[in-house]
Amino acid sequence: MTGFGKAIGQYGNKKLIVEIKSLNSKQTDLTVRMPTLYKEKEMVMRTLLYDKLGRGKIEFNLYVENNGAESNYTINKDLALNYFTNIKALADEIGESERSYLSTLIKLPEVVRAEREDLDEEEWSYIEKLTHEACDHLTDFRRQEGEKLYKDFTARIDGILEHFETVKAHESERVDSVRQRISKALEDNVSSDKIDKNRQEQELIYYIEKLDITEEKVRLKAHCEYFMETLNTGDSQGKKLGFITQEIGREINTIGSKAYHAPIQKAVVQMKDELEKIKEQVLNVL
User: Fold this and answer.
1) pTM, to two decimals
2) What is the domain class of 3-69+120-140 according to CATH?
3) CA angle 135-141-142, nearest 5°?
């Protein structure tokens, strides 16, 4: 399920920005980007994100802005002076005119050194607090999207059940149509005096039973009810809803293959259309 969460805080001389994005995915796919100082905590952060957000393609970014009040860099003055003495002597020896060597000295090895900073556990606790806050914002975003999806799912399932009623309404008409079609085909190809009426009736009953869709209708209605029941649970049920849609599709397809009746086949096409839209949206559910 898509979502975005952001939290900003100040710790000492640092401005800390946590951004979390979530996209649709059948699995959990975490990407964690943090400055080198915090890399030792990457697995801790991954666990936190997994526990808070669950399934999805999740991208976590931690940005740190230093206000410049303190510096992690020092200048090795003794080394810089030593470089300068040697450069000046070389310049005098080759007759170079006097000039400023400061810009050159700054670029020489080890003159400017970055001091290694140790991770402050209190700072990390503050980053975790910001991450929880960003996750809560993302969850609120997801919840709003979920409410829209719920309304859409309800309308789609209602649509399937509405077309299902059309199938039921044409059931007896379909049986009569099949019976008349078979009887007419038999009469057109076999003379009436050669037709065994008892055998004909037995064959008709057998054939009509093969086309019976009573079980499919019962299962289709049960699957639709189970879909809504699952949708109303408080837990993340995206995968389960996906499995239920597969079962709904199986029953609709079987009804279509047995229909042999235009109004029922039309209703089947409409049910399939509603189901395809449900399948597309189920991918957005955790």
Assistant:
1) 0.61
2) alpha beta
3) 90
